[in-house]
Design brief:
16 helices, Rossmann fold, alpha/beta, globular, 6-stranded parallel beta sheet, single chain, 9-stranded mixed beta sheet
């Protein structure tokens, strides 16, 4: 089976949020399972390929000169055994795929950049003639508007929060059934793909249900409900080779279920040293996130006044919008004995330390299609405290609701008060050693890998083949 897999993000070429890790993990497992996957990404200008070949793509004139270059990705001096295709167009090579880092606002020509990328994906599809075209989010969705005789199409919705809505003037540029992209009085790439795809995959079963509701459907609930059984939910996985405390080279001391306390104590000590704190034994709370409204950053910072009375400290790793980044820095400066934050860049080794060395991991998201961080936290023996949305419901078992299966805390309400209560409940769970170790063992021994999700994707591919 040959699959052309189109995405705007795939680690390590490009990664902004969870999609970059999710696409990388899925592709890696699919290839391991024998699926012939060709990945196509925008050429952001800094990916080195070995054994490179290049050619022009037959795209509409408005796209401008567009070339594809194909080769094996060079990673840390080594070579990926599989090839990828990068689409080279003027405007794609930017310091951030989506936003201007100096302002935090979207590039003003994102519609031209990614609708043009969709046209390039369509051109590549015509050349390669794959058995299945797998599109990911709105950045690739426009491809369906340039394929008069498409192969079976699978669309993954990583989030409905971004849809690529743009001027209705774009409708005249779609060459195939432009009506699919009409969204009230504008053009919407994502709705075009929702209407055209043979299968639509939401990245968790609960998110597949949520997007059919007015509350979480982001205006798309009627469109998705109309697709009926074409909409399915498949939970993402994580790379259990990279996120594994038994093998993690970043950790001061590796550990498994039998020596949890020793390994986690060493990671905790490294975090306290980094924050220049004296460890008084109180609870340590962790956050690794994009600093955007979706992630409930305001709820996390609303917890700040309560930290002292809880005897807790908070470490934050994240970057994002200027307003929330400034707010995090302000709270850290105002409470240096309680809050420490790294907001200047994403620090991968620090992320590993936070997962291993904190007691509770906070995810008070407004919506969370799947979420990977809660799985990473549980794999390292840390309890997530999260709102009951999206994939958080599919992966976290509330220990108070189900003591025999519990792995974390699901907040009763989606606000700061709910988070405060959730942290209090999490701290209580930590205090009973037998309960704490049982929770940790359940999280650490669960199979969070891509093995089962990849097999479900293969079944979807097989179901749409003609």
């Amino acid at each position: 089976m040959q699959v052309l897999f189109a995405t705007a993000e795939m680690a390590p070429v490009a990664r902004v949020g969870g999609m970059g890790l999710a696409t990388a993990g899925l592709v890696k497992q699919l290839r391991a399972d024998g699926v012939d996957v060709t990945v196509v990404l925008p050429d952001y200008g800094d990916a080195e390929l070995a054994d490179e070949t290049s050619w022009d793509l037959d795209v509409p004139a408005w796209c401008g000169p567009t070339r594809a270059r194909r080769g094996r990705l060079v990673i840390d001096g080594g070579l990926d055994e599989h090839e990828i295709v990068l689409v080279d167009r003027a405007g794609l090579a930017r310091p951030h795929p989506y936003v201007d880092p100096t302002t935090g606002t979207a590039w003003p020509d994102n519609d031209w950049r990614f609708i043009g990328f969709g046209a390039a994906v369509a051109a590549l599809t015509r050349q390669l003639e794959p058995d299945v075209l797998h599109l990911n989010d709105w950045h690739t969705a426009a491809a369906v508007g340039f394929l008069p005789a498409p192969p079976p199409i699978v669309l993954t919705i990583h989030t409905l929060g971004y849809q690529g809505v743009t001027s209705a003037d774009w409708l005249q540029r779609f060459e195939v059934e432009p009506w699919r992209f009409v969204w009230y009085d504008v053009a919407n790439p994502l709705v075009g793909a929702i209407r055209a795809a043979d299968r639509i995959i939401a990245v968790s079963p609960n998110y597949a249900r949520e997007i059919l509701t007015e509350e979480q459907g982001m205006g798309m609930h009627h469109e998705l409900a109309a697709r009926g059984e074409a909409v399915v939910g498949i939970l993402n996985g994580i790379d259990t080779a990279e996120w594994n405390p038994r093998l993690d080279p970043v950790l001061p001391t590796t550990y498994g279920e039998t020596d949890i306390d020793t390994g986690r104590a060493a990671a905790r000590a490294a975090l306290f040293e980094r924050a220049e704190w004296h460890d008084d034994g109180g609870p340590l709370l962790g956050v690794v996130t994009r600093l955007v409204d979706q992630k409930g950053v305001d709820r996390i910072l609303g917890l700040a006044p309560y930290l002292e009375s809880m005897g807790a400290r908070l470490v934050i790793l994240g970057s994002g919008t200027p307003d929330l980044t400034d707010w995090v820095r302000h709270e850290a400066a105002a409470r240096p004995d309680r809050i420490w934050a790294e907001t200047s860049r994403y620090d991968e080794p620090l992320a590993h330390l936070i997962f291993a060395g904190t007691d509770l991991f906070l995810m008070p998201s407004r919506f969370e299609p799947c979420g990977l961080a809660q799985m990473q936290a549980m794999a390292y023996g840390t309890f997530p405290v999260a709102t009951p949305v999206g994939g958080l419901v599919d992966t976290i078992v509330d220990v108070d609701a189900d003591p025999r299966r519990g792995t974390g805390i699901l907040c009763h309400t989606a606000d700061t008060a709910g988070l405060v209560d959730g942290v209090h409940r999490g701290i209580r769970a930590l205090r009973v050693a037998s309960r704490r170790r049982a929770m940790q063992k359940r999280g650490m021994t669960h199979d969070w890998s891509w093995s089962a999700p990849a097999a479900e994707h293969v079944r979807v591919y097989q179901s749409v083949q003609r």
